[in-house]
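Subject: sequence -> structure tokens, single chain

Hey, anyone have a minute? Need the predicted structure for the following. Not urgent.
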Amino acid sequence: MSTKKTVAQPSATEVAKQVEGFIDKFEPAMAKRIREVRAALRKRFPTAIEMVYDNYNFFVIGYSPTTRPTDYIVSLAANAKGVGLSFNHGADLPDPHSILQGSGSQNRFVRLEGAKTLSDPHVAEAIDAAVATAEELPEEKGYTVVRSIAAKQRSRR
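Reply:
Had a minute. Here:
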């Protein structure tokens, strides 16, 4: 007899409500921006796995071909001050227009005024470069997974 416990996974509806609750912690204008950027990224990456983290400093949604956190291609990262697009391996991406910010050994980011920033030719070029270096996305429709929720968080407002 097996002693292994199986944990019921939340339904897609339950996960969607949970993510909406995370976004609702933000000021209305910021929550609207997050939703618009998320919708644009989901449209750009319809088969990616959305990995959601409601962390201490940031609310993050990574778009990945797998459920491994290190495989995300780009992620939406938001706090009370704004929304950014993070590139997991941004330090290795070509940046001929010097749009990528940050000085870490791996990650780079672009601040987003809104979803429209994603269609800026320079930002779109950086996204395409990140996709070209990533593992191939699956063919089936993507889904959302809540990976972590910090017990303690900075104010989202």
